[in-house]
Design goal:
The complex is a heterotrimer of chains A (240), B (343) and C (350). With 240 residues, chain A is an alpha/beta fold. Helix content of chain A is 37%, strand content 26%. In chain A, the strands form two sheets. In chain A, strands 6-7-8-3-9-10 form a six-stranded mixed sheet, with helices on both faces. The radius of gyration of chain A is 17 Å and the shape is globular. Chain B is mostly helical and 343 residues long. In chain B, the strands form two sheets. Chain B has a two-stranded antiparallel ribbon with strand order 1-4. Chain B has a two-stranded antiparallel ribbon with strand order 2-3. The radius of gyration of chain B is 22 Å and the shape is globular. In chain C, strand 2 (166-171) and strand 3 (174-177) form a beta hairpin. The radius of gyration of chain C is 20 Å and the shape is globular. By secondary structure, chain C is mainly alpha-helical. Chain C contains 18 helices and four strands. In chain C, strands 1-4 form a two-stranded antiparallel ribbon. A two-stranded antiparallel sheet of chain C has the order 2-3. The two termini of chain C are 26 Å apart. In chain C, helix 4 runs parallel beside helix 9 (178-201), helix 4 (37-62) runs antiparallel to helix 12 (226-252) and helix 4 (37-62) crosses helix 14. Classes of the chains: A alpha/beta (240), B mainly alpha (343), C mainly alpha (350). Chains in contact: A-B, B-C. Chain B: It comes from Ruegeria marina. Chain B: One of its GO terms (cellular component) is plasma membrane. Chain B: GO terms for molecular function: transmembrane transporter activity. Chain B: Belongs to the binding-protein-dependent transport system permease family. LivHM subfamily.
Chain lengths: 240, 343, 350
């Protein structure tokens, strides 16, 4: 395997007086999907937010392609080619779908071929191109949120729970779109609670508990070992 | 995906009131004008008052727009905003006094050129001042409302005193450029030329501002930033830089408003910014903090209200605007066009 | 005993305690220590401003709420006494009635403003109070039939409080007349009101208020009705400010927009509370004393310095006695940045 696109070395992050991350060691291989798993509140979202720079690691290093981005400002991190889909989707409700997408294309006008590809993955976005994003349904908002990351080719995609609270039909749309993204050779770090999606997409998996990575290995290994799941996450994933 | 066949929801017909609700703020302006016509039976007086109310509203809008945007974008409340109004007025008036030859000539072109120079001078001065103010006064107190209010108030006091040091304690009287003096008669009503120019000017600035916010990428960033600044940064835009830009632009607009206001009253004093702040605050509160459209509508309402009431019962003109604010806050506690924040 | 009087809120610093003791001593014996019309007048002004600033500190320092209407409440109290004395005739009943009515009106007005603005956002309060206070000041100067307009109202207080009333000959060379009684009325009233404020901020109510200032979200989550506490603090602070205004009117036997309602006084209050120390109560004593003394005596010094360097460009204007506010403004900004706890905070730390 070539050297990883992203590496976290002993990252510790505090929020107010709470030590949320306590030495995260994480590698995201190039051109693969890495699942970040774990129960609620173990630090998965904090890990993503630390990588993009919303929260600052007070110890340890974050390396993107070997470059130390630990102390870079968020906009600079984003411009090195990191696409971020936050847990709350972060769409601009008062802006139209088009305006949301235009903003997401930081390096210039939207590439039309790329946009066609996005439309084909998420047809509703084409239909509601000129409507205010605030009027979209929950699933359509999530589509927009991911489409914003997809609209340009990024070196790394950070995606936080893209299927949270969505209807099954829309979950499969999401999964299909992410699979297409993966097929293009994208490197993705994905937080996901839906196991079938995780199993279908993930190449490798990292499991977090209490602010640390407690297990990492091939997704297939974790998927077939119910005892391991039980031990790591307190419940069997097959139950989902 | 296919539609479930039996489920066919129908939209209940919206009542008139429901359909009007989003447009209510916009409709308030004509409603107030009509109310004015009812209260003031003399049509020509009403027309005169309406024009001067609109003119005043436009000027208040110029002064208030920067304040509301700065708040929306960075949650910074600047009590020293009035300082830019005063400084703009003093710089502009000084330029006009220097260009006495141009303002005294009865040529519209020369007069407007002089005014343009005055406006540019004022905007440059207040823009530069805004940059310094942001660096020195505002930046150290980000995210701390109480300190922001105190420190920016302190900044206002200092600037006001510096104006007195530089221009002397006396008020300065200024007459309008020759071609803008006097009034034209329309339908029996005397409409001051300067006020008509002020209305036109205000409309142009509002249109440019709206266009910038709607049609340019920088405008998109500002609007998105008002809603969710964190996400704008995560997309790769340096919000901090945008904010400084908006602060400078807002200060320059306040300076522009100051010049217009000074010429409207034909006198400038060091305290005029402080006095303008009262109306500015009323306007941004009733408009909805952070909303440019709300600010525009609010400014027109306040301008009209002030002029109508001043004609009917001069003593309660200012109080009537407090009444307007109370009424609107009872109707919509966050202002007419509340800005939805992501968090 | 002292602890009980101070509601358990001790100065906690030897230097601070001695300064406070000295101020109390000087104010208590001012007519005897510094006989003279101007000095006693200064002492009375200090007494009144200590109360005014303390009541503001309840709001700003303990409640974390910025108000620009404090002079309005101060003025309501002053005008209450003046109007009552003018229309009901001179007498203690008119003074008491006017003061109570003023306090009541102030509290009611504060209640309404608080309800409107504190319900939505605390910063609304600062903006709305600024607008309302300015509008009221304009209104007062325009309703000249009732308020005397810009000229204000001169009125008569009971004979016992005037210089013509003598109740003895002389004591330590000081004439025992009504003016002396008047001073002690102001002094005693101020002392009681100050101790009352001290009690309030050290009561459970005061502690909840501070908890809200630190984190209103958490206070709400624990179950405190944040808006209620804030509105209550606003009303109480307004009522005490009005009473301070009444005392000031009794002392001056005059009210006018410049002595009670002007924005300048509001700025003075802000300076006093910040320089003395926000959220300490004792800061009000120190801030008011320092600033009133400075206003009376330092301004002369600045004037002298200004004329000494006459002939230089701009500098003399900067040091002009009238540019006093410029330097106070600079001092104010610097204190908010670097000494947010003011003089008292400094003394307590060292």
């Amino acid at each position: 395997m070539s050297d990883p696109i992203l590496r976290l070395e002993g990252v510790c992050t505090n929020i107010a007086q709470y030590h949320i991350l306590q030495g995260v060691e994480l590698e995201v291989p190039r051109g693969a999907v890495t699942m970040l798993l774990g129960r609620n509140g173990v630090g998965k979202t904090t890990t993503l937010r630390t990588i993009i720079g919303h929260w600052r690691a007070h110890k340890g290093r974050v390396l993107l392609d070997g470059q130390d981005i630990t102390h870079m400002p968020t906009p600079a991190i984003a411009r090195t080619g990191v696409g971020f889909v936050p847990e709350d989707m972060g769409i601009f409700a008062n802006l139209t779908v088009e305006e949301n997408m235009v903003l997401a294309a930081v390096s210039g006008p939207i590439d039309s071929a790329r946009l066609d590809w996005v439309f084909q993955a998420f047809p509703p976005l084409k239909t509601f191109w000129k409507s205010e994003a605030g009027n979209l349904s929950g699933g359509q908002k999530q589509m927009l949120s991911i489409a914003r990351a997809m609209v340009e080719e990024r070196r790394l995609y950070l995606i936080d729970e893209p299927t949270k609270g969505l209807a099954p039909a829309i979950v499969s749309t999401m999964a299909r779109a992410l699979r297409e993204l993966k097929a293009q050779g994208a490197s993705i770090l994905l937080v996901e609670q839906n196991f079938s999606v995780a199993r279908a997409l993930g190449d490798t998996a990292c499991v977090m508990d209490d602010g640390r990575i407690v297990w990492s290995g091939a997704m297939s290994e974790l998927a077939t070992d119910a005892g391991l799941q039980e031990r790591l996450m307190g419940l069997s994933m097959d139950a989902h | 995906m296919s539609m479930a066949p039996e489920h066919a929801p129908r939209m209940a017909r919206l009542s008139l009131a429901q359909r009007l609700a989003p447009w209510m703020p916009v409709l308030l302006v004509p409603i107030l004008i009509v109310l004015g016509a009812v209260a003031i039976p003399n049509t020509s007086s009403w027309l005169t008052l309406t024009v001067s109310g609109l003119a005043m509203g436009m000027m208040i809008f110029l002064m208030a727009s920067g304040l509301t945007l700065v708040f929306g974008l960075m949650d910074v409340i600047n009590f020293g905003h009035g300082a830019f109004v005063s400084v703009g007025a003093f710089v502009g008036v000084s330029v006009l006094l220097m260009l006495g030859g141009m303002t005294g000539a009865p040529s519209l072109a020369l007069n407007l050129a002089a005014m343009l120079l005055a406006v540019i001078g004022a905007m440059l001065a207040t823009g530069a001042m805004g940059w310094a103010f942001e660096k020195v006064i505002v930046q150290p107190v980000y995210g701390h409302h109480l300190k922001q209010i105190l420190v920016t108030m302190g900044g206002l006091i200092v600037v006001e005193q510096l104006i007195i040091v530089l221009w002397g304690p006396e008020e300065i009287y200024i007459s309008r450029p020759e071609a803008l003096k006097g009034a034209i008669t329309f339908a029996g009503a005397a409409l001051e030329k300067y006020r008509l120019v002020a209305v036109g000017f205000g409309l142009v600035v509002f249109a440019v501002m709206r266009w910038t916010l709607r049609r340019t990428k920088i405008g998109l960033i500002v609007r998105a930033g008002v809603e969710n600044g964190e996400m704008v940064q995560a997309l790769g835009y340096r919000l901090r830089l945008v904010f400084v830009g908006v602060f400078i632009a807002g200060s320059a607009l306040a300076g522009l408003g100051g010049v217009m206001w000074g010429l409207y009253q034909e006198v400038v004093t060091a305290h005029m910014g402080n006095q303008a702040m009262i109306l500015i605050f009323i306007v941004v509160i009733i408009g909805g903090l952070g909303s440019v459209e709300g600010c525009f509508i609010g400014a027109l309402l306040v301008g009209l209200m002030q002029n109508y009431v001043a004609f009917l019962e001069p003593k309660v003109a200012l109080i009537s605007n407090i009444g307007l604010m109370v009424a609107i806050l009872m109707w919509r506690p966050m202002g007419m066009i509340p800005v939805v924040k992501a968090k | 005993m002292i602890k009980a009087v101070l509601s358990g809120d001790m100065p906690r610093s030897v230097v601070l305690a001695s300064i406070l003791g000295l101020i109390l001593f000087c104010l208590a014996l001012a007519p005897f220590l510094f006989p003279g019309v101007r000095t006693v007048d200064t002492a009375a002004r200090i007494c009144v401003f200590v109360v005014l600033v303390a009541s503001y500190d309840l709001l700003l320092g303990y409640g974390g709420i910025v108000s620009f209407a404090h002079t309005m409440f101060f003025g309501i109290g002053a005008y209450g006494v003046a109007l009552a004395s003018t229309h009901l005739g001179r007498g203690f009943d008119a003074l008491a009635g006017g003061a109570l009515a003023g306090a009541g009106v102030a509290a009611a007005l504060a209640f309404v403003i608080g309800l409107f603005s504190l319900r939505v956002r605390a910063i609304f309060f600062a903006m709305i109070t600024l607008a309302v206070a300015s509008a009221v000041a304009v209104l007062v100067s325009q309703l000249s039939g009732l308020t005397g307009g810009e000229d204000g109202l001169t009125f008569q207080t009971p004979r016992e409080l005037g210089p013509a009333f003598k109740f003895g000959d002389e004591l330590f060379g000081v004439k025992l007349n009504g003016k002396l009684l008047s001073y002690y009325l102001v002094f005693t009233g101020s002392l009681i009101l100050f101790l009352l404020m001290l009690r309030v901020v050290n009561s459970p109510f005061g502690r909840v208020l501070q908890a809200i200032r630190e984190n209103d979200f958490r206070a709400e989550a624990i179950g405190y009705r944040v808006v209620r506490y804030r509105v209550a603090a606003t009303c109480l602070s307004a009522a005490v400010a009005a009473l301070a205004g009444s005392l000031y009117a009794i002392w001056l036997r005059y009210v006018g927009p410049d002595t009670t309602l002007s924005m300048e006084i509001m700025i003075d209050i802000l300076l006093m509370v910040v320089i003395g120390g926000m959220g300490t109560m004792y800061g009000a004593v120190i801030g008011a004393t320092v600033l009133v003394l400075a206003q009376n005596y330092l301004q002369n010094l600045m004037g002298a310095a200004g004329s000494a360097i006459e002939g230089l460009p701009v500098l003399p204007q900067l040091l002009d006695a009238d540019r006093w506010l410029l330097w106070l403004g600079v001092l104010f900004i610097l204190s908010v940045y670097f000494f947010p706890t003011g003089i008292v905070g400094r003394l307590r730390r060292s």
